[in-house]
Amino acid sequence: xxxxxxxxxxxxxxxxNETIVLRAQREGRRFLVGFHPQPGNYEVDLPDGxxxxxGTVWDFxxxxxxxxxxxxxxxxxxxxxxxxxxERHRVYFSRTAGEQATFVVSAEGLLTDHGVHxxxxxxxxxHLKYMR
Length: 132
Ligand SMILES: [Zn+2]
Fold this sequence. Notes:
This protein has helices at 122-125, 128-131; strands spanning 3-6, 20-26, 29-35, 44-45, 59-61, 77-84, 87-94, 102-106, 109-114.
């Protein structure tokens, strides 16, 4: 496996079988969602009968420790840790269904961004390298 994702709070591996599994919660609905491990691939696996209508904002949390993954950087983003080729990165992604904005940030700053809606969040991320 190339991509290893983990919880920033409890360090549990979030993608034991390639797919990233997070808990999603909104207005009384609570279920596990599977995300594609490749940043920029927006395929999602939902349980039968569940939908994430475009434009709805979700609370994503770690399925192991239940800690919220919402980022302090921007209320619109969630964050998880990524290890890729033995380097540690942090991945930020939009909490809004249908919004395609994903950022991979290394210790040196923003590494890559993916998706057609990144301009909504870029201002929160371009300054990251100056904060470290
Ligand atoms: Zn956790």
